[in-house]
Model the fold of this input.
Amino acid sequence: MKNGPFLFTGVFLAILISFSALVLGSHSQLGGLTPYHDDTEGGSFPQRTSGLAARGQLVYADLGCAACHTQQVRRPGYGSDKDRGWGERQSVARDYIHQARPQLGASRLGPDLTNLGARQKSEEALLGLLYHGSATHPGYSFLFETRAIAGESSPRAVKVAGQAAGHETVPTERARALVAYLLSLNTSYDYPEAKPYEPAKKEEAKK
Amino acid sequence: MPNPPTHATTAEVTAIDTQARGPLLLLLGSGLVWLVVSGVLALLTSIQLHAPQFLADCPQLTHGRAQALRETAFVYGWLANAGLGLALWILARLGGRPLRGLNWVVAGSLFWNAGVALGLVGIAIGDMTSFGLLQMPRYVQPLLVFAYACMGVSGVLAWSGRREDAMYASQWYAVAAIFLFPWLLIAAQAVLLWMPVRGVVQPIAATWFAQGVWALWLAPLALAVVYYIVPKISGRIIPVYEWASLGFWTLLFIGSWSGGRHLVGGPVPAWIPTMAVVAQSMMLFHYLIILLNLRAIWGVGGTTAAFIRFGFVAYLVFGVAEFIASFRGVAAHTHFTLFNAAIEQLGLYGAISMIFFGGIYFAVPRLTGLAWASASLISGHRWLVLAGVVISIAALGIAGGAQGEGLLDPKVSFPDMFGRMSTPLLINTAAQAVLLSANLLLLVNFLRSACPWTRTAEPTPTLFRAATEEAHAS
Done:
């Protein structure tokens, strides 16, 4: 190969073509997705998250939770996602259109969290896990603060063994936002495109 | 024991080498410092896998942040610096003229290292972007582009000002890597950080970028080194060289299409993972050609050859592993598991890093004009790093296998799954400790060999050989 301009044009075309096809191509396919309006439910889906939960997603991202948790359910029959109770249907692109930074994740050292809010209703249990951790989950005590009880104790205080009398350990604003976000995770609404294609049964076909 | 390729006699050292000595040693040295930093972080993240409470109350080092720090220090600290240093050196030597714009290289590398350091601080305090291989915060990114452009200019000048029109394969790969990376980085920044695309197009773009970092930047940098060094140390011309350009264009045009395998089963259009399977199978052609071209690496002795050979085999095995893992049936077992971490370790450490180690052992004596300071440190590094890489890949692979089986069986709880993985994860931690100590040996040896105040204190060259096999093929 002697021709310098040929080499330059070639390598530039290589990156241009793959970028155009993969990034711009999928953008043109999915970038215009709109919420799905359902008259019977009287609303549009996916629904926007509350302000506190939206702030919680930033905490989720900046702590790097996606290093161990995914937020994508695979179709029933592929992997054990449905059998583990992580979701009745596969995740679809429309689930993520309101998310500023979707946290799909690529590693499952912990459970999938796509529908955590549908199966975990207890704020207390999540705060306890975040503070104490478990055999497989780190305890993030820096998301909590210990303070003297002024008046009534906080309903969100976590139970800490050997806590000094008159003191309580309560979640910080960041922990509350994170828990609000985790409890808001719920994609149980069925979109038309989320239903897997099922071929008509033989008997119906005969009719 | 004769150990040919680690030593250069003064006859081999030309004005091209002496003139570029300072800037290129700066690049290689800063790469090695970052390698040690990322080694500490790799050890830490590995401990966290079997002891989740380790440093859990330190907000700067949650497992997610520590992983991002490790990956950033490794790719942008170690691989970028070392790869650029070697590529610039090769472009200068093959171009037949001293490097131009060396002040830009020095300024660029200082800015680059400052940018990476700032990026790591940003990740630690919670500003990470959460895109793989693009974790450094948005405010650092323009600095990185600027710094890289400063360094890259010298490479493009060396290429465009070459003495002869004809180009060697090594030059194609080096100049393509140097030229493409800024475009890749700018495109990814544009669609992910400055004008973010919506929803799942973000993970698609992030996967495209991460695959591009491999196929359009790191792999070409490593292949530039292999194509340059193999004929030199084997004393043989490259067989079926007329096919080399096909291997090159296959990597560039097809390689960056195969990132979709990381999205299999996800909420993305089905054609993206399907395209990855097609691209991975076409890439086998690339691996076949470079195997034919570079098979002369077998049968050559010495430290450089040992590293290059290991890295080259790892590169080929990585290609086959990626191909197999891209199938949906296989991905059902391996997706979301540490098996992917094992493949990443195979690619980035086993292949690219080992090739760069070989390149460093070859280049440093030629840049300094003196032999490596210590033969025992070379030997220590060589055996420790070989053991560490092999054991860590195997341990992560076994842990990933156990994780995959555990995930597939809904009756297996996560504590049970971790119980099955605990032994390989402990072994991986030991391997990371071995890798860290190995790379400390290399850093010490490099500093003793390259620092001006220690260089003159070396009266007899270590690992001496006569300069008879050097003249050809340059």
